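stage 2 :: seqdesign
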């Protein structure tokens, strides 16, 4: 059933509406042409584009829990393409262009709101660095603007611009086409669209082992039985290292915790995404009125999905320093995602030494905003056994050759990115 205003009206007038389930609940077959491990945004997007763009129909997505229950449902929903390095800038800009028509393509409202993403500037040196990055964006045809304090005050009235704080704000840069989307809706939209293409989405199905013969993938052992396949894609975010170990691989990736929190709903006060490197905090307001806040990594390796109080305190303190009105707001809940941090801060979409085993991970802070392009490029790689031009430089091989994509210049240390 196609969603539309007319179908909503027609079903609403019926005594017993006949809405179809958004996706089927199939039992797994014994064999598939492609199996994707991970039922988050990246895995579901990959399955959708494999079926739609490449005509592969015998596809299964295996999720050990429920769809979108990992990092897809635990992030801060920010979408942007303000990167300096050529490979990253073109990749994330392609993703942003896919976001702009995603609701129409999936026939599902992902609630993409291009409200703008603002990065605050706190010193002349920081301003020079940001302006250099934004000039490089403009040269590549990506939208970017530089703001003074007067323009910033007009855009974000509640921001503290008094200049007597620890990190006084002296300006900002903004990407107007950036914004936010509803994370759950992205997973549901891709799941529904993939299901309509014939993809089997199998929840509560944990992968327990990977069968390899003569260096080639032969299948996967799951909690629901053995499934034969010659092409296996891994999209499991923070658990990438554990799944790769089943194939005998050691990845240049570490798993860290990244926290977020929301306040109680308050009156509208922030209609854009505001970020600051000095306080290591980013703030936005949800459609329900909650103030959504995130910050840096907790700084230790863990799969727990529970963050530490010191990191949470730093996030909340930075948010209040930027927006003093938040001092009286009550915190509703906080959570953490287990993020896979690559050693140079850039993602990995790559073939591996095991034939038929393809890896998608190392997304660091950028996983959610990359969802459409990640699925689009990963599907191309699995279907053609070669990278898409947009992800050629995001291969595993770069860690062997030293051609790293070090966006921040922080060196080969995962928790520095």
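stage 2 :: out
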């Amino acid at each position: 059933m196609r969603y539309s205003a007319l179908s909503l009206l027609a079903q609403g007038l019926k005594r017993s509406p006949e809405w179809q389930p958004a996706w089927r609940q199939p039992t797994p077959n014994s064999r598939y042409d492609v199996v994707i491990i991970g039922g988050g945004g990246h895995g579901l997007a990959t399955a959708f584009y494999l079926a739609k763009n490449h005509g592969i129909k015998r596809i299964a997505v295996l999720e050990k829990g429920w769809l979108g229950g990992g990092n897809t449902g635990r992030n801060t929903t920010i979408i942007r393409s303000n990167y300096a390095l050529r490979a990253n800038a073109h990749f994330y800009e392609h993703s942003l262009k896919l976001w702009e028509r995603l609701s129409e393509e999936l026939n599902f409202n992902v609630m993409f709101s291009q409200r703008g993403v603002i990065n605050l500037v706190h010193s002349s040196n920081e301003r020079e660095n940001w302006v250099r990055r934004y000039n490089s964006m403009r040269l590549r045809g990506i939208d970017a603007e530089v703001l003074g304090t007067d323009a910033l005050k007009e855009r974000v009235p509640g921001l503290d611009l008094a200049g007597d704080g620890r990190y006084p704000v002296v300006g900002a840069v903004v990407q107007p086409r950036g914004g936010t989307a509803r994370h759950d809706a992205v997973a549901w939209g891709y799941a529904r669209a993939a299901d309509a293409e014939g993809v089997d989405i199998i929840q509560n199905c944990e992968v327990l082992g990977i069968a390899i013969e003569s260096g080639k993938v032969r299948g996967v052992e799951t909690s629901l039985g053995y499934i034969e396949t010659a092409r296996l894609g891994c999209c499991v975010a923070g658990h990438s290292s554990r799944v790769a170990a089943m194939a005998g691989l050691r990845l240049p990736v570490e798993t860290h915790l990244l926290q977020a929190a929301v306040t109680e709903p308050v009156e509208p006060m922030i209609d854009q995404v505001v970020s600051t490197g000095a306080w290591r905090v980013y703030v936005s307001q949800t459609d329900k009125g909650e103030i959504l806040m995130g910050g840096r990594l907790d700084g230790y390796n863990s799969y727990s999905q529970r963050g530490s109080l010191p990191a949470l305190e730093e996030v909340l303190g930075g948010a209040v320093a930027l927006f003093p009105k938040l001092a009286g707001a009550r915190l509703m809940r906080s959570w953490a995602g287990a993020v896979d941090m690559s050693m140079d801060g850039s993602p990995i979409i790559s073939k591996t030494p095991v034939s038929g085993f393809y890896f998608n991970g190392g997304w660091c802070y950028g996983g959610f905003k990359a969802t459409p392009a990640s699925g689009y490029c990963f599907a191309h790689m699995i279907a053609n056994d070669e990278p898409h031009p947009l992800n050629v430089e995001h291969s595993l091989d770069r860690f062997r050759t030293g051609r790293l994509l070090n966006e921040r210049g922080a060196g080969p240390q995962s928790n520095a990115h």
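stage 3 :: structure notes
- The chain is about 30% helix and 25% strand.
- The radius of gyration is 22 Å.
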